[in-house]
Amino acid sequence: MDELITAVKTVGIPCVIKPLMSSSGKGQSVIKTEADIEKAWNYAQAGKRGDYTEVIAEAFVKFNSEITLLTVTQKNGATLFCPPIGHRQERGDYQESWQPAEINSEYLKEAQVMADKVTKALTGEGIWGVEFFLADDGVYFSELSPRPHDTGMVTLAGTQNFSEFELHARAVLGLPIPEITLERVGASAVILADKEGVHPTFTGLENAMNNKLSDLRIFGKPVTRPYRRMAVALTYDKVGSNVEAIKKRAIEIAKMVKVESE
Ligand SMILES: Nc1ncnc2c1ncn2[C@@H]1O[C@H](COP(=O)(O)OP(=O)(O)OP(=O)(O)O)[C@@H](O)[C@H]1O
Ligand SMILES: [Mg+2]
What we know:
Blueprint: H1 2-11, E1 15-19, E2 29-31, H2 36-47, E3 55-59, E4 65-73, E5 80-81, E6 85-90, E7 93-99, H3 105-122, E8 126-135, E9 138-145, H4 164-172, E10 184-192, E11 197-198, E12 201-203, H5 205-209, E13 214-218, E14 223-224, E15 229-238, H6 243-256, E16 258-260
Antiparallel strand pairs: 1-2, 1-3, 4-5, 4-6, 4-8, 6-7, 7-10, 8-9, 10-15, 11-14, 12-16, 13-15
The chain binds adenosine-5'-triphosphate and magnesium ion.
């Protein structure tokens, strides 16, 4: 806690406090005044995963949008980058993602250079979800997953020649991936539970599946809780199609499905 007070002085306010290990934004909060420091510390300790008590204090980045750059490191081949994925987060969890995301070529190049450096330094082969913030003053590296990324589920809509899971499997097996190509424009939108329960069931599937160029994935999680991600709606169209329209359709389809539980 004392170290955190010092760290907050160094990075300045506002800043973001994160447990060293967590996911889906758990234990993460924004400090807006000095009075928030103790709250942020306690919140991080309550939300952390594992035994690490350390927290990360990070300057708040005022970004315009964020992307995931899925990066594949190979045993015997070049490091490859998937077309950038745009996403929107709420409560620390992604709500919708789309591919390709709009980004100028200079920012994209910069992000690729950073993703290449950080994955090389970490070593190993497989897919990485490298997250960046796009701001007025440049590209910020945020964090990365050493595995397929939740926002990358959009690739299940057939946006690429290989989904992020297929790419990961090939890479960890040491099998070659000669190239990654964009085959469609796509979007994903999450389907959330709204209460605690067991034995989840899904209604509205007929309506949701009655949409062309679309699909659903149900995760088979046995337990529900408020805001728990239970399924994802996927939709796509030809390369060159309007991404905004596809994003809207993904959200509409996701809304058609309701999660019930006992
Ligand atoms: N320094 C920051 N400035 C502004 N926003 C931030 C900052 N750090 C995180 N965020 C916001 O919070 C989201 C979640 O943060 P982060 O990715 O670090 O958490 P996480 O727990 O690893 O989440 P996940 O595992 O779901 O990716 C980010 O995608 C971003 O929207
Ligand atoms: Mg993240």
